[in-house]
């Protein structure tokens, strides 16, 4: 049996062989006698430099001198990560990571001994001193307060909490006694490289790249992670019913900012499971209306300290539509399938844990409190008393695997949706790539 080109899995490789989303861009900073040049992954030379986990912070320091006295005793380049607590009307800054190198005088090694050596350079003209420092993936924080665990180096973080994380480069000119030292500070942004832990399925790759409908869980069950919950409620005629609801998220549950998150919803029941079988179809039809079940993504930012601080916000809400072609007959057990999509904001940070901060994301499912003709019955389960009925932890990534197509948008334009449910939706635009994704 021969295989067609469409049967071959698309090529992909670990991002370790394609470490950074953008090529280097040069930034230049000047002071009275010095010029500092660094390369970063920012999109514009006038913007704040950007570095990713594993980036090499490389550049040069240039000095113009006219006399021997103009030459500093030493030049040190240092990069530092710092946490800032903004409670109590003041900002308390505490460094948690530091890396430095002395670029003048040079450090030389002679056999088994090493020392700093003062070299004789011409005192007139321009002197250029290159430097490079690599940003690590994991660190042991400074001042760990008894906690010596290693953590992934956290991203730059400025949010609604009274705590922030920022990164700074220092270029320090030490001039010795009776002379003023000089320090130039350059703020930069750091972000981890977050990628999926596994590739998507061949069928989904084919659907994304060729503009085909998304394969439902009944066709590709291994491409979804799912959970089922019962929804118990009462109809207007007083009949009590129980409908099973299944939320199916595409795997891996790792999603790109600025791109859609796809899922399926299944509402179903089997004959003989309820005393009010005659009303199950009515209940399922009510719950399968687009506004009845709400699926949304929630971001949770937690600051663990005295006076525990927690901020959660809904950052994306899904659009759902019914797939009538997948409805089943009543004698087979009533079933309704809905496809859903969430357009994620483009500025989401990957989640992280770095004491005292935690940032995480969840996809939640709940029932609208005012569904016409259906009211949820009170239950002993706290999940149906103000909390979501279902809650999935998900991952935000910022890099796709090489060779994988980006997810297209399937949801119909609102102005094109009629009162009748759509049966078949194909992507409305071809896959697109952004600057932060693999080429």
From TrEMBL:
<dbReference type="GO" id="GO:0005737">
    <property type="term" value="C:cytoplasm"/>
</dbReference>
<dbReference type="InterPro" id="IPR050357">
    <property type="entry name" value="Arrestin_domain-protein"/>
</dbReference>
<dbReference type="InterPro" id="IPR014752">
    <property type="entry name" value="Arrestin-like_C"/>
</dbReference>
<dbReference type="GO" id="GO:0015031">
    <property type="term" value="P:protein transport"/>
</dbReference>
<feature type="region of interest" description="Disordered">
    <location>
        <begin position="412"/>
        <end position="439"/>
    </location>
</feature>
<protein>
    <recommendedName>
        <fullName>Arrestin-like N-terminal domain-containing protein</fullName>
    </recommendedName>
</protein>
């Amino acid at each position: 049996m021969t295989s067609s080109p469409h049967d071959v899995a698309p090529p992909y490789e670990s991002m370790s062989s394609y470490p950074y989303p953008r090529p280097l861009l040069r930034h230049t900073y000047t002071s009275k006698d010095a010029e500092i040049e660094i390369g970063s992954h920012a999109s514009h030379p006038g913007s704040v430099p950007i570095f990713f986990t594993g980036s090499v912070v490389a550049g040069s320091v240039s000095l113009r001198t006219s006399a021997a006295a103009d030459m500093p005793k030493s030049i040190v380049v240092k990069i530092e990560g710092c946490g800032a607590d903004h409670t109590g009307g003041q900002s308390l800054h505490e460094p948690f990571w530091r890396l430095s190198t002395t670029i003048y005088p040079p450090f030389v090694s002679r056999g088994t001994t090493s020392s700093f050596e003062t070299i004789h350079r011409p005192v007139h003209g321009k002197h250029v001193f290159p430097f490079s420092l690599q940003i690590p993936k994991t660190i042991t924080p400074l001042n760990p307060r008894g906690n010596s665990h290693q953590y992934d180096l956290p991203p730059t973080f400025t949010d609604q909490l009274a705590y922030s994380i920022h990164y700074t480069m220092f270029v320090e000119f030490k001039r010795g006694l009776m002379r003023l030292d000089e320090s130039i500070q350059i703020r930069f942004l750091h972000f981890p490289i977050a990628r999926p832990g596994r590739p998507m399925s061949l069928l989904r790759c084919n659907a994304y790249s060729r503009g085909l409908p998304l394969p439902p869980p009944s066709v590709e069950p291994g491409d979804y992670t799912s959970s089922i919950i019962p929804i118990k409620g009462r109809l207007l005629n007083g009949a009590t019913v129980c409908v099973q609801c299944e939320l199916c998220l595409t795997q891996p549950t790792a999603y790109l900012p600025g791109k859609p998150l796809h899922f399926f919803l299944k509402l179903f029941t089997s004959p003989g499971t309820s005393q009010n079988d005659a009303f199950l179809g009515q209940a399922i039809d009510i719950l399968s209306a687009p506004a009845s079940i709400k699926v949304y993504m929630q971001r949770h930012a937690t600051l663990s300290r005295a006076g525990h601080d927690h901020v959660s916000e809904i950052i994306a809400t899904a659009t759902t539509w019914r797939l009538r072609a997948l409805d089943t007959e009543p004698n087979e057990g009533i079933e309704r399938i809905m496809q859903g999509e969430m357009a994620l904001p483009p500025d989401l940070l990957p989640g992280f844990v770095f004491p005292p901060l935690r940032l995480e994301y969840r996809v939640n499912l709940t029932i609208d409190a005012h569904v016409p003709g259906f009211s949820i019955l009170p239950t002993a389960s706290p999940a149906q008393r103000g909390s979501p009925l279902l809650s999935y932890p998900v991952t935000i990534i910022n890099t796709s695997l090489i060779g994988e197509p980006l997810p297209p948008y399937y949801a119909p334009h609102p102005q094109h949706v009629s009162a009748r449910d759509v049966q078949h939706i194909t992507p409305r635009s071809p896959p697109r790539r952004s600057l932060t994704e693999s080429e």
